[in-house]
């Protein structure tokens, strides 16, 4: 049992300020940029936060990386996680970074990153609560649901089970998996142009209780004129040219929406 793993998303972008503004308008908590962050360099930003999933922005100038979102994991007990994975037969490595400690576990999809998010630092140079400025209480409920398109669902199911994820729901070719310490992943059968990338690349779906008409208006006001409401979801192109869908926050009685083909 590996009880402390949570989900994080790593987004590669060539315009971090624009992505911060975009995600903040969608309702994710904006990062706190401190002197420490600025001293470490322009590519170091604290994660934006949904209700249960962290969204880490990473600056890149490589065209092949721009717009890619990769699944990652976090734990407040990296040593315990490494030991548990090794005991269960996993191949894992860990190392020190400028921000703390990280590791990776080898899977059938290739390496999956695991970051130490214990105090005093959070993922990728975030700060302790004592370093953060006061923020207003969240009045809108917003979260990120990564979607992993798979042509080998049974194999991916085995990987998630080995990481102590639990199957929460299964509907119409999609399985909703929950990480032990926070965050959910939608494992979806590949279809149409939603192909299996054979790595941990995911499509980041947004769930929000923000009024969709109001969200379209917000986005249009700051230049996202393609924002539109279609079949209950807001569709918009982000600063990296990626199609983003914002769906209503699911309830216990409503299915988790699957992304369209754009």
Can you characterise this structure?
By secondary structure, this protein is α+β, with helices and mostly antiparallel strands. The chain folds into 2 domains: 6-125, 2,3-Dihydroxybiphenyl 1,2-Dioxygenase, domain 1 (Roll); 142-248, 2,3-Dihydroxybiphenyl 1,2-Dioxygenase, domain 1, CATH 3.10.180. It has 5 helices and 15 strands. The protein has helices spanning 16-26, 35-40, 78-87, 153-162, 212-221; strands at residues 6-13, 48-49, 54-59, 69-75, 92-97, 100-107, 110-116, 142-150, 166-171, 174-178, 184-189, 203-208, 228-230, 233-237, 243-248. A hairpin with a 2-residue loop joins strand 13 and strand 14 (233-237). Mean pLDDT is 81; it is low at 34-44 and 120-137.
Write the layout of secondary structure elements.
Blueprint: E1 6-13, H1 16-26, H2 35-40, E2 48-49, E3 54-59, E4 69-75, H3 78-87, E5 92-97, E6 100-107, E7 110-116, E8 142-150, H4 153-162, E9 166-171, E10 174-178, E11 184-189, E12 203-208, H5 212-221, E13 228-230, E14 233-237, E15 243-248
């Amino acid at each position: 049992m590996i009880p402390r793993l949570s989900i994080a998303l790593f987004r590669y972008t060539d315009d971090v300020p624009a992505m911060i503004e975009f995600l903040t308008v969608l309702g994710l908590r904006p990062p706190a940029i401190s002197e420490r962050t600025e001293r470490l360099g322009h590519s170091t930003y604290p994660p934006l936060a949904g209700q249960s999933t962290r969204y880490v922005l990473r600056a890149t100038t490589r065209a092949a990386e721009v717009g890619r979102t990769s699944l990652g994991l976090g734990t407040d007990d990296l040593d315990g996680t490494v030991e548990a994975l090794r005991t269960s037969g996993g191949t894992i490595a860990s190392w020190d970074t400028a921000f703390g400690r990280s590791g990776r576990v080898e899977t059938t999809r290739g390496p999956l990153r695991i970051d130490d998010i214990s105090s005093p630092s959070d993922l990728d140079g975030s700060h302790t609560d004592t370093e953060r400025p006061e923020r207003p209480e969240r009045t809108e409920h917003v979260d990120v649901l990564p979607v992993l398109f798979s042509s080998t669902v049974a194999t991916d199911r085995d990987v998630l089970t080995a990481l102590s994820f639990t199957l929460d729901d299964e509907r119409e070719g999609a399985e909703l998996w929950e990480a032990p310490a926070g965050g959910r992943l939608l494992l979806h059968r590949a279809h149409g142009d939603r192909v299996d990338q054979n790595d941990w690349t995911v499509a980041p779906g947004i769930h929000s209780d923000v009024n969709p008409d109001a969200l379209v208006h917000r986005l249009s006001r700051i230049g996202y004129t393609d924002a539109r409401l279609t079949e209950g979801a807001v569709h918009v192109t982000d600063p990296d040219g990626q199609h983003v869908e914002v769906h209503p926050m699911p309830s216990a009685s409503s299915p988790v929406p699957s992304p369209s083909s754009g």
